[in-house]
Write a structure and sequence with these properties.
Oligomer: single chain
Radius of gyration: 15 Å
Strand content: under 5%
Shape: globular
Length: about 110
């Protein structure tokens, strides 16, 4: 076992360290926790509806392609800087939607 972290772990740690120093740690966490989506969504409809707008603001379509994400071909050519999700049409609120809601707020917050 080595005492040195690999490059990816270093990059993630640096990202979190920088966000903490700049007072944006919670915003970073809110966005990251919404990217994955629920595993319980059998049809992927819920996951696609709510994670896609968050993912479109973070990833390029080529990055989404490399990650084998669905619907990336329909993504805009540039990353979105705002996310608009209509939560009023949501029939059932869940822990997953808490993550989406807080990620949306974090993305739309202006520094």
């Amino acid at each position: 076992m080595t005492n040195k972290p690999n490059k990816t772990l270093k990059e993630i740690r640096n990202l979190f360290d920088k966000a903490q120093k700049e007072g944006r740690l919670q915003q970073l966490w809110n966005i990251l926790t919404a990217l994955r989506g629920p595993d319980f969504d059998q049809t992927n409809d819920l996951k696609t509806k709510y994670t896609t707008p968050i993912r479109e603001s973070v990833l390029t379509s080529s990055q989404a392609d490399k990650l084998n994400l669905t619907d990336y071909r329909n993504w805009p050519k540039i990353r979105k800087n705002d996310v608009v999700i209509d939560f009023s049409t949501t029939e059932e609120w869940s822990h997953f939607l808490d993550h989406i809601y807080f990620a949306t707020k974090a993305i739309n917050k202006r520094d």
